[in-house]
Give the backbone structure.
Amino acid sequence: MITLTREEQKSVVKMVIESHQGITLSEAKTNEDIREEMKLNLEFYNSLKEGFTREGKTTLDEAADMFGTVLSVLGNIKDYLTGLKVIKNITAWVQELIQKLSEKLGPQIDKFIPQKIQDLAKDGVTAVEKFIKWLYNTLSYKGFAKLFAMIRYKTIKPSDEQKQCMELAAKKVYKWILITLVVAFVIKLLITAIPIIASAGVGGAIAGKASVGAVAGKASVGAAAKKASAGAVAEKVAAFKTTLKVVLKPVDKILTKIGHGSLFMGMYSTISAGVKTKDAHEISNDIKTIEQKTKDKEIDGFKDAWNYCPIK
């Protein structure tokens, strides 16, 4: 059964031809070795795409996002399957793989960020829900388990046992990439929401380096007026935090599901604490620090996860 679309088949064939520098399409057609190489790659990527499916249906536009990404990152799979390419440092290899996968998938986030948020509670919720749905449809630890089994056991059709053996390693990669994309999304959504924060009079730095004093009122304003203005700002700050937590609830849910609910609380606390005194760049850096610690813990011990089942 051919799962690859016509365009995806062309992409695989083009990749094989380009891996042989200087060869023409006509020459490739008559070269038996290259024809076998094309067949091997088509079978590999067709089988891999079947791994990124749910309930018999390919994910998100025929799994185009993940298929195209994996194809561009792995390239010609021949050397992996024939044993010509030996992975000497599995942790370094997977770190390079997931970094490239994240970089390729990262730009996809932009299509879920509204260009302008008029109402954070409305526009934000819509954006988050669409983003989470895309994540669910694009990423699958089952797909990664099949990919790793194909590479480790050098087979196009790994057994169920072989795929199960790679699930621990697959889940680590799945979580690493998911965390990367979620954090990037939250940061971009926050930056887009800045005009709302500014127009509400919430905080200084994040709304454009205006001081809290400027929000509360000029120095010449009476103490009573300052107190009233500060109270109004405090209410707006509290309202913003409450709204933000509601908007990001699906993010909290998906991170909690993979065992990283503390990452969400860390991001939320960082935004809440910095909304009045820091700009978006500073808050983003603080969030990225928390993110990196979480990802380091996730990828720690990957070699043991990869070798969970000894090769018979």
